[in-house]
From TrEMBL:
<keyword id="KW-0808">Transferase</keyword>
<dbReference type="InterPro" id="IPR000719">
    <property type="entry name" value="Prot_kinase_dom"/>
</dbReference>
<keyword id="KW-0547">Nucleotide-binding</keyword>
<dbReference type="InterPro" id="IPR008271">
    <property type="entry name" value="Ser/Thr_kinase_AS"/>
</dbReference>
<dbReference type="InterPro" id="IPR011009">
    <property type="entry name" value="Kinase-like_dom_sf"/>
</dbReference>
<feature type="domain" description="Protein kinase">
    <location>
        <begin position="24"/>
        <end position="209"/>
    </location>
</feature>
<dbReference type="GO" id="GO:0004674">
    <property type="term" value="F:protein serine/threonine kinase activity"/>
</dbReference>
<keyword id="KW-0723">Serine/threonine-protein kinase</keyword>
<keyword id="KW-0067">ATP-binding</keyword>
<dbReference type="InterPro" id="IPR050660">
    <property type="entry name" value="NEK_Ser/Thr_kinase"/>
</dbReference>
<protein>
    <recommendedName>
        <fullName>non-specific serine/threonine protein kinase</fullName>
        <ecNumber>2.7.11.1</ecNumber>
    </recommendedName>
</protein>
<dbReference type="Pfam" id="PF00069">
    <property type="entry name" value="Pkinase"/>
</dbReference>
<dbReference type="GO" id="GO:0005524">
    <property type="term" value="F:ATP binding"/>
</dbReference>
<keyword id="KW-0418">Kinase</keyword>
Amino acid sequence: MYHLERKTLELQNYKEEICQVHHFEVGTLLHYNYPIKVFQVRSKLDLNVKKVIKAYYKDSNYDEKKIVKHFLSEVAVLATIHHPFIMSMDFMGSFPRYLAYVMPFYEDGTLTKVLPSMHQEMSDEYFVQLCAAVNYLHYKKVAHRDFKTDNILITDKKVLIADFGLSDILPTEDTMATKRKGTVVYMSPEQFLKRPFDPFKVSHFFLHF
């Protein structure tokens, strides 16, 4: 299992908000599931530069240790993986009201958006790319645990797997899971059997969905 202490030491604390530190101005709220918010922003220094901020808000109504653990677990995965078909992270930090990381903004949106107009050739290409990305994740012993079309971004005719908020870094490829995670409609059947299952094979179920 990933040692959170190591990542905590690398987490820089800022006294100002992220937009002040990095000269961003906030645009659209893309996703809201409190205490997590995802914003589109752009640089005040170059209006052509667009980014996305994912913020985990510090709130007395929530268990702050759980919020910190959830955030560190996600950035630990993003700091570990580097692949052309997986979303990247630019930087992260702890700010007065939240923990946050910054990632590129992908103009074409999600696979959900493009599916209705997708032709067979492009569908086949995206499928090959997804298989390559999933194979890489499993090589790095990362189980995504929430594969769905909303979590696959599209840019420049390629896919990018995103949202590692529920992912696990596992000690071996043989490690079994017992906790059910993800979006119900995309979950593999074995997660409902109340017995240990292979978290890597869950990804294969999505690819056959």
